[in-house]
Predict the structure.
Amino acid sequence: MEKDLKRLSRLTAILTHLQTRNLITASELAARFDTSTRTIYRDMKALSDAGVPIVTEDGKGYSIMEGYRIPPVMFTEAEANALITAEQLISKNKDTSFIKEYTNAISKIKSVLKGTTKEKTRLLSKRIVFRQNPANEKTSDYLTPVQSALTDFKIIQLNYHSPETNTTTIRRVEPFALYSTRENWLLIARCRLRDDYRTFRLDRINHLSVLEERFEPRQLTLDQYFDICRKKSS
């Protein structure tokens, strides 16, 4: 059973790979999937027998008949969130042609997302802000679960350390938005302990749990939140 699942996974990956290349040889595929060329020959025959129009060019390699399209790839929610996060980062790039091409590509990807995932990625794209991080330093490991909690409207419980007082408090918060600075990822959330919006640095979170408890989303946009912050500081 495990062997069959491994082969099915490889066949699917080969199909995806073929669609991204004009020609690829059996030896290249064997190296990529850590198998023998004889196994690749069998895989190609299996794909042909299944109705995939594989074109073999002697001495050159394999390709898929022009016009054939593989059914859309199904993305997990975490994978879709990663793509949306990358979209916000790339939008800050200084080369407009790169932004244009990536925008076109991500639009095609969004079109194949399932309805619920599509709605969640649309929400997430409105709740992420980027600033430059030249050193590309990794300072936390909580971004993915926070993204899921934000789009699922789930309460987060976190142990938050304050270096100023050298204390750690347990907070239950309603995740609202994510904010990237040069140094860290920040979570903007409504803190139930303080009954107000607070900003939490992800690298200061010692432990984080996404609870099953849900909260009612508040009618506040990210722009409105920043306007409130500007008025408080003025």
Summary: The beta strands are 54-57, 61-64, 128-129, 154-162, 167-180, 185-191, 196-201, 205-214.
